[in-house]
Amino acid sequence: MDKIIALAKRRGFVYPSSEIYGGISGFWDYGPLGAELKNNIKRLWWQTMVYQREDVVGIDAAIIMNPKVWETSGHTSSFTDPLVECKSCHLRFRADKIEDNRCPNCQAKNNFTEEKKFNLLTEVYLGVTEPKQKAYLRGEITQGVFVNFKNIIDSFRVKIPFGVAQIGKAFRNEITPGNFTYRSREFEQMELEFFIKPEEKEVEKWFNYWTEERFNWYVNLGIKKNRLRLREHKEEERAHYAKKALDIEYQAPFGWSEFEGIHHRGDWDLSRHNLRYKDKETNEEYFPWVIETSGGVDRSALFFLIDSYQEKNGRVVLQLNPLLSPIKVAVFPLLANKESLVKKARQIYDLIKRKFITIWDDRGNIGKRYFSQDEIGTPFCVTIDFQTLEDETVTVRDRDTTKQERIKISKLETYLKEKINQL
Ligand code: ATP
Q1: Would you say the CB of residue 260 lies under 6 angstroms from ligand 1?
Q2: DSSP code of residue 197
Q3: How far is CA 369 from CA 132, 359, 365, in A?
Q4: Ligand 1 and 395: CB distance under 6 A
Q5: Domains in the chain, please, with CATH?
Q6: What are the tens digits of pLDDT across the range 106-128?
């Protein structure tokens, strides 16, 4: 983890938030490469979950909602974690994450206060007149979908079974933020609420379907299958809204850890918000049941980084799927002080830049430039050398094989496109 955290900071993936003022626990800023990585994850998720399907639409709801939403959904009373305090060092912890009843800070054993319920919702105060109106930063993005259920069925031609997808920020006043970005107080979720007929056989069908879809999505993007597992929640572990819950877990350096949950929420939310569905063909009216897939953008980004991290002969290579790589192509003139080479390289850079996220580098020697790109997962480096000036070819160096191929400039775009867009 230390190596990942150091690389993330040094190369501009993730910085501690407001670091010059000492940081703030549970908040992180994404740098130029981190922002690209997250955008890639979100775009690929949206492509798979919305654009490639006929039965899912996407929305983007507000972060702050009428507080009645959270009262009705049960979050103000039940969105809690068990809190204990160590009587020796007085630090507070989440009781269900403590192993062997031993304090993670001072190692004191069996010396905790009684468990208290600690609500995770973050309060905000709005308006100019006192008392100000209390509201909450959303603790999960899901509620924005449920409260718009009627709006969506009235304004869009959707028919059960169908889904509503959303990506956005959520906030939780986590008791112990930690493991880098894994447990933050501000994070991004990517979620699908899939509405089905209230029948057990439909649950069985769609729960299994979405579990498989989501599991395969990560595998197709390169996460090693042997580092993934599915784990069903025991009854006492389940969130207040869930009838059945299963986690997709990754074998992180800090242990098996959830990064996406598949939940059968039943009609918990729609019945509380009193939002029914009317089947236009049969005139049947009912509260649909919901199968939810709830993934974390930050946890995915972290696990993609961890999973792709390789050390080869003391050098770091991020073997990210090219679709996830923040930079797709780096363009180098062989020598920075030969005007003819630089001019030609600039022309190629300008050409490629319009199609792929491309970076220019003319510092140091070519070897160093390759290693610098390997470290951030750039799949292809294009070098313009003296032969380029003679025969209009460039060398393309592949990050994973380190092999170099000579490619005609006229074929370069097609060549890169084929290699980068493979999924
Ligand atoms: P945990 O048990 O780790 O607290 P959870 O079961 O409360 O997680 P869900 O409510 O199912 O998590 O949230 C769905 C997804 O949102 C998680 O799988 C995760 O990817 C993301 N997520 C939840 N809490 C956090 C957090 N504090 N920091 C980063 N991502 C989070």
Answers
A1: yes
A2: -
A3: 55, 11, 6
A4: no
A5: 2-79+120-307 (3.30.930.10), 329-420 (3.40.50.800)
A6: 999 999 999 999 999 999 999 99
